[in-house]
Each structure stands twice: as C-alpha cells, then as structure tokens.
Amino acid sequence: MTSWQLNVYDLIILFGIFQAFIFSLIFLLKNKGNLATFFLSLLLLEFSFNAFIFLVLTYGGYNRYPWLHLFPYGLEYVIGPTLYFFVRHSLDEGYKMNLKKWAWFSLVLLNYPHSIYHLIFGRKVLHLEIHAFLDDLGYGALIPIFISLFLSYRAVRQFEQNGEHKFSKTRPGQLKRIKLVLGGCTFLSLIFLGRILVDEFFTKLNYWQEYLIHSSLTGGILIFGIGGILFSLEFIHEKRKHKMLNKPSSRKTYESNVQLLTNLMEKEHLYLNSNLNIRLLEEKTGLNSKDISMTLNHGMGQSFYEFINYYRLKEVQKRLLDPQHQHLTILGIANESGFKSKATFNRIFKEWTGLTPLEYRNFYKNRSHRRE
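Above: the chain sequence. Below: its structure as tokens.
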C-alpha cells in the first residue's frame, strides 16, 4: 500500500500514537522535577514512535519524504533502560542518576545505522547482506529490554520483601500502578519477540498479521496511558497536599496532631486494642473525628486503618522473630497485636511485605542462621 488513505486499523494505531503523545506532554508539564514521570513519558513516546514508523513504512513515507531517514528506524534500544529507571525512581524518590546511568541511553545509536544506510543509498537495496544485517540489528534490542524487565521485577520484589514500602512514600496502590506499567511493557515485549520468531523461523507475516500485531502494540500503549494517568494523578494529588500542608497555620496544626497520634501508638500502644476505632481516639486525644481523619489523610497520607495496621504489622513482625513468642501460633501473635480477622491479617501482611507470615518468619530465620 502506497496511498495515504487511512483505513480503520490505521486510525486505531494513529489514535494510540496521538494519545501517547498527549499523555506524555501532560505528564511532563504537570509533574516537573519528578524523574519517575519523566521516564514514564519517555516510555510512552518510545513505543508510540515505533508504531509511527510502522505507518510510515506501510504507506511508503520514506519514498515521499527521504528526510525522515534523519530519524532512527525505531527506539527499541532505549526502552529497556527507560523502563528500569522509571521503576527505580518510582520506588525511591532519592534514587540518583549519574553519568554512568545516563550513558545507557547511548544505545539509541544502534537504531541509527539502518537510517544512515538509506540516507546514503536511498530506498534501493544495493547491498543485500549489509541491509539484511542492519534490518536484523533492531532485534538485538530485546537483550536490554528483557534484562531491564528482569531487573525491574527483581527491584519490585525486593522492595516488597524488605518491607520498604512501609517507610516509603510508595504506597500499596501506587505499587500496583507500577506493576501495571511493568505488565504492559512485558506484554509489548512478548509480542515483539513473537513477531521476530514467526517472521524469522516460520513464515513472513502478511499485511493483516502485521496489523494484528501493531494493533496489539497500540493496546499496550493504551495500557501505559491508563497506568500513566493514574500514576500522574497520584503525584499531582501529593503535590497539592504538600502545598496545603506547607501553609504555616495548617502545618503547625497537623504537626501537633500527628505528634499526638504517634505518641498514643508508640508510647501507649493503643493499636493492640482490637476494638480501636476513631471514637476511642476522640476520647484519648480530645480531637473530633473530622480532625483525626484530616490529620491522617492529609498530614500523614494514610487512612485510619492504614495508620493503625502499620503499627500492628510492625508488632507482628517483631513478635514473629522474637524467641519469647515462638510458643504462639501466627494467628495468636496476630490477635495479640490487635488483629481481629485472620483473613484481613493475611491479606494486609501479604500486601505490605510481599510474603505470607510463615514465609516471612522462615525467610528471616534462615537469613539469621546463615549469618551465624
């Protein structure tokens, strides 16, 4: 096909490219200074650029506009590093970039040889072996992509296992959105790998098979867009909360209330009471329920139950490894730490640590024995 008359499938792909571009601009403009959002924006642009190259090839765009060869034939080689640094900055806002880390983006140079070849020789294939090699060079991008996927999943797993999210700004909900982006990238990478295997070892893909693959890629881009919107909205909400709490009058009130609530947990251990609720906190603090909720939600970024369960989980974790409590069952320890429901306890423990209570105890016991 050489005509520029777009059919419905082209419009689907074009829509994916357009929305990725718009989302990327929104993320960059709304979230200045946040590197996690910056890398998410890059990731969207990289996938949408590859979909754009497909349309250009399909409709003979390089024949009509040779200057398009000034751009790389794709951005596959930098997808991996971009994904990994998005995950690292999402998990840890203090993660630092240095020259060595930025150097990974020099891999984009491997996307240029194919374009340079056509800049020199035009669209005519004069050296078949050289052209075939340059055509296959893009497949090498799967190496940094899958390495980055492995490292990203490992970073998330370690983050959960170490219980770092309890002391980090990365809440369980945000962690799910990070996993959504990771899942989208895995989906797109597997499609890319499947296309290569079929194309190289079985049969050349026909026109409609190519469309099916690139429509799937567009679907993956939409997943990124949805995950990105949720990620971006949460960051915007955090910035607004931060601005509100930085007002002198609000800050003093919240700081005083936060200190009051924290002291009740850490010194009086109110969380051990399984019947603890906001009404009991009202009696202990002299604050009304609205002030308590506002302090927890805006001053600490937590709901009432997140706040209470944080201390209960810390107590459970301490007792699970304490020899003086080894005679108790895990459920017995949970009950003594303030949990009423076994199902709720198991769900929250797994959600916050990435392990079941038994796995947690065995993991740290084994690690302690190895040190000895």
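The chain has two domains: 8-244, 248-371.
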